[in-house]
Amino acid sequence: MRFSGSLARGVAPTGPGTLHARTVTGGIEVPPRTGLTVRFGRGERPDVDLGVGVDDLRVSRRHGQLTFRGRQWWLTNTGQLRLPRGRMVHVSSEPVPLAPGYTPLFVRGAGFREHLVEL
């Protein structure tokens, strides 16, 4: 699928639970399947499914992941992430369930850099 513009503007109709994820380097569309995991970070395939902060050494090769279980996607952090309204997700945090709709993730980079992952 070709991505242009922000996911905040919406996506084409798909099945319930389909994950749409986008960064400045590309995007993916993944149907819901129990146990399926989508990994993101500055690494390359096959280590990650979605590149983020690929030129920023502060971003982990595998910075986080999204796993489908119990009828929804769950976010797990292996680096440092910030959700909207300043909510931090740390390595020690329990997985966070994603609500349906648009969710921006902010991956902390070097200096004052933040990299956006749109879900």
Supply database-style keywords.
11 strands, globular, 38% strand, mainly beta, 119 residues, five-stranded mixed beta sheet
So what's the overall shape? globular
Mean pLDDT: 85
**Biggest sheet: strands side by side, in what order?**
4-3-5-6-9
Roughly how much helix do the residues carry, as a percent range? under 10%
Q: Largest sheet at a glance?
A: 5 strands, mixed
Taking pLDDT < 50 over at least 5 consecutive residues as the criterion, the unreliable ranges are none
User: For the CA atoms, what is the radius of gyration?
Assistant: 13 Å
Oligomer: single chain
Number of helices: 0
Query: Which band does the percent of strand residues land in?
Result: 35-45%
Element order: H for helix, E for strand: EEEEEEEEEEE
Beginning-to-end CA distance, first to last residue: 15 Å
Structural description of this entry:
The chain is an all-beta fold and 119 residues long. Helices cover 0% and strands 38% of the residues. The protein is built from no helices and 11 strands. The strands form 3 sheets. It has a 5-stranded mixed β-sheet with strand order 4-3-5-6-9, with no helix packed on it. The chain has a 4-stranded antiparallel β-sheet with strand order 8-7-10-11, with no helix packed on it. Strands 1-2 form a two-stranded antiparallel ribbon. It starts with 18 loop residues before the first strand and ends with a strand. The model has no long low-confidence stretch (mean pLDDT 85).
